[in-house]
Design a protein that fits this description.
Elements (H helix, E strand, L loop, with lengths): L1 H18 L30 H5 L13 H4 L11 E8 L5 E11 L4 E16 L12 E16 L4 E14 L2 E15 L5 E11 L5 E2 L3 E4 L14 E4 L10 E11 L5 E11 L5 E10 L3 E10 L8 E11 L3 E11 L5 E11 L1
Antiparallel strand pairs: 1-2, 1-17, 2-3, 3-4, 4-5, 5-6, 6-7, 6-8, 7-11, 9-10, 11-12, 12-13, 13-14, 14-15, 15-16, 16-17
């Protein structure tokens, strides 16, 4: 089983390199077009966890709290007890993004199970028409939802791997669609003390499309109305295009420099290769003070000429409750340029 999971991961990484070798220059033409907006389910690209976002999202090789289910599920093998984390994100234009991560070590099956939920709620909006642009009295709602189940195990004393499946659903009033995706991840504790490497493949799956009663109607096909006994009430069902989920390859490196038993500094960085955007690099630093307080900073989307996100800052605290559990509170602020900023709050608890 261990060899099988590792072989699949290496095979998929090799395939990604093979298909990524074709560029516009190789084909003999140049273009300024990028891949933005070329996939469905953009919600799957929103980062999870205030701590991870505070270090610029450079969390693939750190991945040692329940938000690892998003950044690198193989990292949940670093959690020795049941852990849960809830994150609330004040996303753009008054939308709300919330997530929950639960990790349960199960020694009887030689690994850990992880359960991940996230929802982007667009709220209630008035229904506007051409003749009633201020609203016709009705309202509609829209939301994106994802649920994932993961299994992670230690292949050796230094290498852990994970496989997981997720269900994504999007709904806009009476129109909806869904798709299944799969994630694979690996984490390597190098022989160098404190140095870790990580790699993930996220959102492998079928294409996504929308359908529903709002895409049905009645039209006059040839525009002749009732002339010559024309049928001007032909029922139709509009078919939407389907698009792939945002496939994302990430490679991360992290190094924790211990200053003494209670203080340390951790550096992290990600190389991101998404199917719906340009390649970027994330970088972040976390300082642990007295084994309880944390200060964090980072920068996202380095080397992208068009990215709006950039500087990230944050802080956190760990508090032990009567040697029974550890309670964590984290906050992060992310700069998004013309889109203003994003605030995230995470609360977690782990059995001690």
């Amino acid at each position: 089983m261990k060899t099988y999971i590792l072989s699949i991961f290496i095979l998929l990484c090799s395939a990604s390199q093979l298909f990524s070798q074709v560029s516009s220059n190789d084909l003999g033409y140049n273009t300024d077009a990028n891949k933005r907006g070329s996939n469905a389910a953009a919600m799957l690209g929103i980062g999870i966890g205030a701590r991870a976002e505070a270090v610029g999202g450079a969390f693939v090789a750190i991945a040692n709290d329940p938000s690892a289910l998003y950044w690198n599920p193989a990292g949940i093998t670093q959690l020795s007890s049941i852990s849960v984390q809830v994150t609330k994100t004040e996303w753009f234009v008054d939308t709300d993004f919330s997530s929950l991560g639960l990790v349960i070590p199960v020694p009887s099956i030689g690994g850990s199970l992880g359960f991940h939920l996230a929802m982007l709620n667009y709220g209630e909006n008035p229904v506007r028409t051409v003749f009633r642009p201020e609203g016709n009295g009705e309202t509609y709602s829209a939301s994106d939802f994802v649920a994932g189940l993961y299994y992670a195990m230690n292949i050796t004393d230094r290498v852990s791997a994970s496989v997981g499946a997720k269900y994504f659903r999007q709904s806009i009033w009476h129109v909806s669609g869904s798709a299944f995706g799969f994630d694979m991840a690996i984490l390597f504790q190098t022989p160098v003390n404190g140095l870790k490497l990580g790699g993930t493949i996220s959102n492998l799956g079928a294409e996504f499309g929308l359908s529903g009663r709002d895409l049905t109607g009645i039209i006059d096909v040839d525009g002749r109305k009732t002339v010559y006994l024309n049928n001007d009430n032909v029922p139709i069902n509009l078919a939407t295009e389907t698009y792939a989920l945002p496939l994302l390859f990430r490679f991360g490196v992290a190094y924790e420099m211990e200053l003494d038993n209670n203080n340390s500094v951790t550096f992290g960085s990600n190389l991101n290769h998404p199917s719906n955007n340009v390649e970027t690099v994330d970088f972040g630093v976390e300082a642990k003070v007295f084994n309880s307080f944390y200060l964090r900073g980072g920068y996202q989307s380095l080397f992208s000429d068009t990215a709006e996100n950039g500087l990230t800052l944050g802080a956190g605290i760990n508090y032990k409750i009567l040697d029974l559990a550890t309670f964590t509170v984290d906050y992060s602020w992310s700069d998004w340029g013309v889109l203003s900023s994003v605030n995230r709050f995470s609360i977690g608890i782990s059995a001690y």
